[in-house]
Amino acid sequence: MMSRRDGLIPLGDEADDLGNSLLTLIAPSLIMDESLSGILYRLKARSHETPRLPVWRIQRGAFLCVRPHMSFSSLLKLSFVALWLLSLPPAWASQPLVIGDFSLGVDQDGVPVGWELKERSGKADFAVLKDGDVHALCLRSEDASFSFQKPLDIDPREFPVISWKWKVTKLPEGGDFREWRKDDQAAQLFVAFSNANVIVYIWDTTAPQGHMDDAWSPPFISIKAVVVQSGRTETGKWLTETRNAYEDYRELFGKEPPHIAGIRLQINSQHTETSGESFFADVMFKRHRTAEIQAVSYPSGNPQF
């Protein structure tokens, strides 16, 4: 994990005017080109005529049909159905926000696209590979410390859950984050917030699973560690982890979290002068199902850890 030398500055188709014909809208949300009140007023004023339906914009979704010669009361009911459809979340609203997809390739230095390599001690030994069906980032440490990081700008209230896959094949002998001189882990996932607070999810050699405590950190930075896995029991196999980073932050820091400013995947074994090996894959943030979709932005500047 982090030593005194480490630092972190956190980081549709548009439908034609179909007039008297059947109008079918396929959409999870309907964006009317005219206000509902204006539509109803004109339909009522022309009740002696065949109503001409407004143009509605299509995105995707459920079926809504308007038939010619409908009574005003039927059109009114249909309008309320449309409003109800507007209130439904889009089907894609629950899709995750993928941060670490290691099938996207590497740059000229072998670094995963979109990530930045940081070497702290010794030489970084890593590879982007396919382990069975899993596209993964493999980290190997021989008395070394290095990491891969990526700047983010994510609202944890919208994307509170972080999920990832990892596998550890070798743990640093004697590693224990509770003691600075033994503070080595084969797998660490840091979530950095914009106010210099950090949560690190770790696979520790010695500290018990579920343990939460302060981790060693440089001045002006507060790092809280969460032991997600411990020891050798689960080594050698892929595990999928899910944490509610929003709730973890509230529990660990006692207040609402600001935006997530960055993420880091790290390995180190320089304190114990041993070695370790781990794999990471499919890092993503997940949102509440009822929330509106929001895209992540990747700041142009590099985060500094």
What are the main properties of this structure?
305 residues, mainly beta, Jelly Rolls, 7-stranded mixed sheet, 6-stranded antiparallel sheet, globular
What report would you give on this structure?
The chain is mainly beta and 305 residues long. The chain folds into 2 domains: 23-88, no CATH class; 97-286, Galactose-binding domain-like (Jelly Rolls), CATH 2.60.120. It is built from 3 helices and 17 strands. The chain has helices at 36-45, 72-87, 245-253; strands at residues 23-28, 31-32, 56-57, 61-66, 97-100, 116-121, 125-131, 134-142, 145-154, 161-170, 185-193, 197-204, 212-214, 222-230, 239-244, 260-268, 275-286. The strands form 4 sheets. The chain has a 7-stranded mixed beta sheet with strand order 6-9-16-11-12-14-13. Strands 5, 7, 8, 10, 15 and 17 form a 6-stranded antiparallel beta sheet that branches. The chain has a two-stranded antiparallel ribbon with strand order 1-4. A hairpin with a 3-residue loop joins strand 11 (185-193) and strand 12 (197-204). Helix 1 (36-45) packs antiparallel against helix 2 (72-87). The protein is globular and about 80 Å long. The chain starts with 22 loop residues before the first strand and ends in a 19-residue tail after the last strand. Mean pLDDT is 76; it is low at 1-66 and 289-305.
